[in-house]
């Protein structure tokens, strides 16, 4: 099988879900949503990417609505944010590290899931990226803001890089746990570097016609 | 079968679709959308929850795009809103009662549909809630506003309560028409009480850090 | 088979994808999104309608995430917009002609795809319209604006007209390449006329109660 070690992957999935759910909860708190809004945005951020992934590859019901462990983890993070949001804001740096781990696990895991369902390479790269960034996009659309990933920060690029590498490894039949974990670590490292150096994707040039 | 009496359920479904479509049409009129926008928002509010439900549980094509009765009902409500919106606003209280009935039927009906397709309990609770609130969320996102259900009013809670009860009844094998109708009435009653007493879900505490 | 000539259809699909992707890229540039945002909005506008179509009729993975030709074409248009957006704005009239062609091909092609998968008439009309306007709606929601198609311009009506005619032709068993191409041309012509005459769908009447 192409999957990561099952037990370890669950742990990492839960880390990713928790981190993404914190981000969803924080956006909801900043937008002054109510308790239900905080829980929905936490769940949407944490599970939305996986739901899109599963709908695209025809795996229903999506794991995001059927696995109570992921769902409970997302709702727990939502409750934590609701009650302790000043504290969560204060450890923002730590949350970003968790978030980078989530990005890495979701991108590589998404591509592997897609390959495992027999999807081809192009599809699997895309599915990996969508798994990693889809939840955050749903979170932002529901919160009434243009998705952050489209505006600033190098967030999607590490996911694209990692998903491409893992799909290539699969294509050339050199996939094994070391390669997979290497890809996960690479995504994590690139994302952390982008955060530390405050790297941003380039913007289109301004022109007189586009003030 | 776990479904409600078919004929009665169709009548109730149509009531729910009509009420939700009125809400979609009113939001569109307030946002100054054109005729097509009013019809799309009416259809999205009325049928969107069911479409998400069916996509999540793998029932394609979703009933919202294949059943001409539901679709016609939604479009008719859209036309009514387009031409007579001041009148519809004026009977706002009556529309809210219809809307509460829609919420109840969609939540319980959504969970029963999910159970009927062999989904497990956690999934079916979620699917019921999503069926009930999904249409309104799509309506608001398309209209450029943060979904109302995330901001205020006790709207999702009755749906969650009813879906949980009907799933529990199914789990303990005590499901029958009386129980199902009891759940529908309970959701309706709780929602009406929330409207009358103007109950809202709690908001996160403000802090100095979140002005 | 009900499809258009395969080779010709691919060419037209690519024209439509390219035109829709330019529209997505331009919206992203105007909203000052970064390079990744421009590429995502280009891809969403160009491929989003087809992805919704395929999810609704159960054809997974959707062609928008599995066909590298469509995807490459969308990303190429996104890059063109990113680097040469003042030029793309300047040939806006030509882009609108391409866009009308895209609308026509997507609407008729969407309905034919749906009929080909065994969907009934009502579903196939809706699926055709959703294929044609879905991408633009996703583009606008991601860019934080109310979808243009809901606010102004006669954009969806030609699609609805063409999809209805092609579904009727299929129903009365008089479908053949001439009829199909006639429908495509009709949609194209109606849309161009609407653009030239600046036709708009009617708006709801203002009232004192809705200032």
UniProtKB/TrEMBL annotation, chains A, B, C:
Segments crossing the lipid bilayer: 6-28, 35-56, 68-85, 97-116, 122-142, 154-172, 178-197
Presence of keyword Cytoplasm: no
Membrane topology value: Multi-pass membrane protein
PANTHER family: INNER MEMBRANE PROTEIN, UPF0126 INNER MEMBRANE PROTEIN YADS-RELATED
UniProt KW keywords: Cell membrane, Membrane, Transmembrane, Transmembrane helix
Taxonomic superkingdom: Bacteria
Main location: membrane
Gene Ontology terms: cellular component: plasma membrane
Family listed: Belongs to the UPF0126 family.
Subcellular location: Cell membrane
Positions of the Glycine transporter domain: 11-85, 97-170
Name of the protein: Trimeric intracellular cation channel family protein
Pfam families in alphabetical order: Gly_transporter
